[in-house]
Amino acid sequence: MKRLALLCVLAVCFTGVASAQDMSKIDVFGGYSFAHLSSDGFGINFNGGSGSIAYNANSWLGIVGDFGGYHTNTDGESGNLFTYMFGPRISMRHGKLKPFVQALFGGGHLTGSGSCSDVVRVQEVSVGCGSVSENSFAMTLGGGLDWAATEHIGIRLAQVEYFHTHFDNIGQNGVRVSTGVVFSF
Q1: Which 8-state DSSP code applies to residue 116?
Q2: Is residue 178 within 8 Å of 35, Cβ to Cβ?
Q3: Which of 59, 62, 98, 108 could be a cystine partner for 146, CB 3.0 to 4.6 Å?
Q4: Using one digit for the tens of pLDDT, what is the confidence trace for 14-58?
Q5: Do the Cβ atoms of 152 and 185 come closer than 8 Å?
């Protein structure tokens, strides 16, 4: 009986060690991002990239730092949006697939410029002749799905999030969609 109990204890210990080896402590993501934001019938599309680093405290809870840079250019009028957000991520590890949800909060920085004959409207920030530079609150709520190609390299199949900013005291709502590569350590 003592041998059976010892065998069970060892099996549980080795199972815990084996599952701990499957969990990475750090996930680093980099890839393409598309963002669409709109307010009062005016919308704008941004293309760019985003990157994040996540510290996984345990098998299901992580803390994420996310940084993005996006650009738009229409009829000689251009704008750049940079975001920096942080928050919790909840993941479910199931074999090679890892779905997750996250809530990120932080800020955004918008710059835009245009010709003197046109009014540049980037995120409802109006500028006549010259350029604009403004900071704002930013947040995303959503999730994604990662696929582990190898032990340390994965593919973020999709990350889709509700995206909100608040430039010029007007709220902008939209979506952010990302895909790319995930490195796990």
Answers
A1: T
A2: no
A3: 98
A4: 434 344 445 789 999 999 999 999 998 888 999 999 999 999 999
A5: yes
